[in-house]
Write a structure and sequence with these properties.
It contains four helices and eight strands, in the order βββααββααβββ. By secondary structure, it is α+β, with helices and mostly antiparallel strands. A hairpin with a 5-residue loop joins strand 2 and strand 3.
Length: 212
C-alpha cells in the first residue's frame, strides 16, 4: 500500500511486522510488606566473643502470618543488636536495618543464614563457649538467626547435636586449634569449617561430609 507524504520528514522509526502482535509485558508486583502489630513476641540471644569485654544482645521479634490454607505460623519481622562496645556501631546499625527490611519483604529468608555465616574476619576468627569455631562476629550473628529460624519451624536442624559435638572434639584432638582455624568453606552451609578427618572432608558447622 503506497501512502503519499505531503509534509517535510523530520524523523522516522523502523516498525517490525509483528510489533502489533506482541503481547504486553507481564508486570510482577512485589508482595506487600508485613505489617507490625503494637506488641510483638521475640527472643533475645547473647553473643560473647574473646575480642571484646562487652557482650552483644540480639533480639528477633516475630509476627504471626496466615498461610493460604488458613494455618498461622511465626516469621521474623525485625532484629535489634545492642552492645556497650561502640566499635562496631555503624555496621551493626546497617546490618540490622537491611536484615529487618528483608524480613518484612516476606518469602524465603533462609538464604541470609548462609550469606552471613560465610563471612570471615581477615584478622582471624575465635572459639565460642563450648569450643565451636566462629570465623567472624557476623558469622555468629548468622548462626543466631539460624537458631531462631529452627526454633520457629522455618528451618530444619541439620545434624544430631551429640554427633556434631563428637566430630568437633575429634577435630580438636587431631588437628588442634590452628588446624581447625584453617578450615575451608563448606559448599552446603557456607561456613569456613571444613576439615579433613579420617581421610574425609567434614564440616564442623553443619556436619556435611563427603563420605556420607
Amino acid at each position: 500500500m503506497n501512502i503519499a507524504i505531503d509534509k517535510k520528514i523530520t524523523a522516522y522509526e523502523v516498525k517490525k511486522e509483528n510489533d502489533d502482535n506482541q503481547e504486553k509485558a507481564t508486570i510482577h508486583q512485589i508482595a506487600p510488606l508485613l505489617e507490625r502489630d503494637d506488641i510483638l513476641e521475640g527472643s533475645t540471644y547473647k553473643i560473647k566473643t574473646p575480642h571484646s569485654d562487652h557482650a552483644m544482645y540480639i533480639t528477633i521479634n516475630d509476627v504471626i502470618v496466615t498461610d493460604p490454607d488458613g494455618s498461622p505460623h511465626q516469621r521474623p519481622f525485625e532484629i535489634f543488636i545492642n552492645s556497650k562496645n561502640m566499635e562496631h556501631f555503624m555496621w551493626i546499625v546497617a546490618l540490622t536495618r537491611i536484615t529487618s527490611a528483608i524480613f518484612r519483604k516476606g518469602g524465603d529468608i533462609t538464604f541470609l543464614v548462609e550469606e552471613l555465616k560465610a563471612v570471615f574476619d581477615p584478622r582471624g576468627g575465635y572459639y565460642k563457649r563450648g569450643g565451636k569455631y566462629m570465623p567472624s562476629i557476623v558469622a555468629e550473628i548468622g548462626e543466631v538467626i539460624q537458631q531462631h529460624l529452627v526454633s520457629i519451624g522455618m528451618m530444619e536442624g541439620q545434624l544430631n547435636n551429640d554427633e556434631l559435638q563428637a566430630k568437633r572434639k575429634e577435630a580438636e584432638v587431631k588437628l588442634g586449634a590452628e588446624g581447625i582455624a584453617k578450615g575451608n568453606q563448606c559448599d552446603k552451609c557456607g561456613a569456613m569449617a571444613v576439615v579433613r578427618l579420617d581421610n574425609c572432608n567434614c564440616c564442623l558447622e553443619c556436619g556435611d561430609s563427603k563420605c556420607g
